[in-house]
Amino acid sequence: MNKLTKVGLSALCGSLAAVSSANAGEMSVSGSATATYQSSAGENTGNPIGMNSGLTFSGSGELDGGQTFTYTITNADQAAFSAGSMSLTTNMLGTFRIGAIDGASGIDSKDDVMPTAWEEVDGTGMTVGQDKISGVGASMNVNWKSPKLLGSTLTLAYAPQNTGGMVNDKSSTGTTSRYQYGYDILLDMNVDNAFYMPNVFIGGSQTHQEGDYQPASMGRSAIQYDDKYEAVAGFVWKIGPLSAGLQRSFEHPGLRADGSTEYYANTAFGVSFNVNDNLSVSYGLVESEQNFVNPNDSEAVTMEVESYQIAYTMGGASIRLAEIQADNIQYSTAAIDDRDATVLSVSLAF
Fold first, then answer.
1. Which of 15, 36, 142, 348 is surrounded by the fewest CB atoms within 10 Å?
2. Residue 21 has pLDDT above 50, yes or no
3. Structure confidence at residue 297 (pLDDT)
4. Which residues pair with 140 in a beta bridge?
5. What are residue 253's DSSP bridge partners?
6. How far apart are CA 130 and CA 122, in angstroms?
7. DSSP labels for 8-28?
8. What's the whole-number mean pLDDT along residues 170-198?
9. What is the radius of gyration, based on Cα positions, of the chain?
10. What is the distance between the alpha carbons of residues 156 and 186, in angstroms, rounded to a whole number?
11. Mean per-residue pLDDT for 71-90?
12. Rounded distance between C-alpha atoms, residue 246 and residue 283, angstroms
C-alpha cells in the first residue's frame, strides 16, 4: 500500500512539473491574518474580539508575442470565495478582463478612494449602511482598459445582466430580475507626479431595468421602473508625504413609487500623512444624503461618518487604531443611530 502511494505521488509531481514547463506560468499565494477589538460607546456588543483571515491565489504567464495574462482568486474570511478575475494585457490594445465582483471594474473601483492610514471610513468595523456606487462591478462583467496616454486611461465595462452576483461556469443568472444589461465608462487622468498634479477621475454607469412595480398597499396601478444611473467624480492630490482627496458620487435607483428613494448623493473627503516609513495618520469624512420620490411623504436624511486613524507597520506586521463617529447610520434619525466606536487591529501578512 505504501509503495503504491509513493509511486502515485511521484507520478503526480512529474505531471505537475510538465504542466508548469509547458505553460511557462507561475502561481503564487499571499494572505493575511487580522485580529480586531471593537468597542462601541453606549452599546452592548457582546464579545468584541474578532479575527479575519484570507488568501489570494495569483497566476500569471506570457503568450507568444509578449502578451501577458493573469488570473486571481480571492478567498475571504473562513476560506469563502469572494472575488476573482481573468485578464489579458496586449502589446498595443490595452487590457481585456473578466471580473467577478472584485471591486476593480468600471466605476466600482472609485466607490471610495480617499487617502487613509488604514481603511475606508465605513470599512473599519462599524456597520453604517452607506449606499455606494457599484456600476456593473457588482456583477460578472467584461471590461477593457486602454493603454496609458500621458498617464491617463479609459475603462469600459459591460454586464449582460447587472444583477449583482457571481455566476458559476456553464451557468447563468436566469431572467427573473428586473435588472438587465448595464455598462460603465471611466476616465482616469493621472499626470506624472513630477508636476505635482492631482489624479482626477470621472465616470458614469447606466443599468436598464424592466418590469412593473405594484405597491399593493397604496392601491396604485403598476409603476414602470426607470433605468438606474450612477456617476462619480473626484481627485486625489499627493505631495511628498501628504495626500488629500475629495469625491462626489450619485445613484438614482429608478424606482418610481412614493416613499422609495429618488437618489443618493455622497461626498467623501480624506487626508493622510506619512510621518515616516512606518507611521501614518489620517482623517476621513463621508456625508451621504438619501432623498425620496415624494418629499411630502419622507424628508431627506443625511448620514455623516468621521474616522480618525493611525497605523504603524513593522515588516509584515501592522497595528492600526481607528476612532469612528457616526450620525444617522442606516439613514435613520433615531437617537440610537448616532454612535461612536473604537477599533484596534493587529494584522500579519504572509
1. 15
2. no
3. 65
4. 100
5. none
6. 8
7. HHHHHHHHHHHHHHHHT-EEE
8. 81
9. 23
10. 7
11. 81
12. 12
pLDDT digits (tens, 9 = 90+) for 22-38: 455 788 998 888 899 98
Count CB neighbours of 161 within 10 A. 21
Could you give the CA distance from residue 176 to residue 208 in angstroms, rounded to a whole number? 14
- Grid cell in block for residue 300: 431627506
Phi, psi of 3 (to 5 degrees): -65, -45
Cα–Cα dist 270/254, whole Å: 30
What is the SS3 assignment for 224? Answer: strand
Torsion sign across C-alpha atoms 90, 96, 98, 102: positive
- Cell reading at 182: 448595464
What pLDDT was estimated at residue 178? Answer: 80
d(C-alpha 7, C-alpha 16), whole Å: 14
C-beta of residue 141 within 8 angstroms of C-beta of residue 160: no
Give 3-state DSSP helix, strand, coil % of the chain, rounded to 5: 15, 50, 35
Q: What confidence score (pLDDT) does residue 78 get?
A: 65
Give the three-state DSSP class for 210.
coil
pLDDT computed for residue 99 by the predictor: 86
Q: Counting every residue, how long is the chain?
A: 350
Which amino acid would we find at residue 301?
Answer: V
Q: What is the mean pLDDT of residues 139-151?
A: 92
The 3-state secondary structure of 160-184 reads CCCCCCCCCCCCCCCCCCCEEEEEE
Q: Are 281 and 273 in contact (CB under 8 A)?
A: yes
